[in-house]
Amino acid sequence: MKIGDRVQVKNSIVVFHHPEHRGNPFDIQNLTGEIIGLVEDKKGRPVSPNYPLMVKFGEKFITHLVDYELELVS
Predict the structure, then answer these.
(1) Domain-located, residue 55
(2) Do 8 and 70 touch, CB atoms closer than 8 A?
């Protein structure tokens, strides 16, 4: 997967930082978004993050996910 790909969350993933449900559990399964970044380094030093894909859903919600939690949308 690469920056700009449209993706959909295929697994049940509960987050607590969704802007409309902050502090409450919210399942993001089936949400569609766009990959906006790949976390590969921090301050110029290489890192190996657990959740390297930054995915943006709508205007305000961004979260980090792993490729096996997503599927490409055409």
Answers:
(1) yes
(2) yes
Model pTM score: 0.87
DSSP symbol at 24: S
Q: How do residues 32-48 score in pLDDT, each as one tens digit?
A: 999 999 988 888 888 88
Sequence length of the chain is 74
CATH number, residue 66 = 2.30.30.50
Closest to 61 (Cα-Cα) out of 13, 18, 15:
18
Residue 1 to residues 5, 44, 54: CA-CA distances in angstroms?
A: 7, 22, 11
Which structure tokens are listed for 74? 């055409």
Q: Residue 64: beta bridge partners?
A: 54
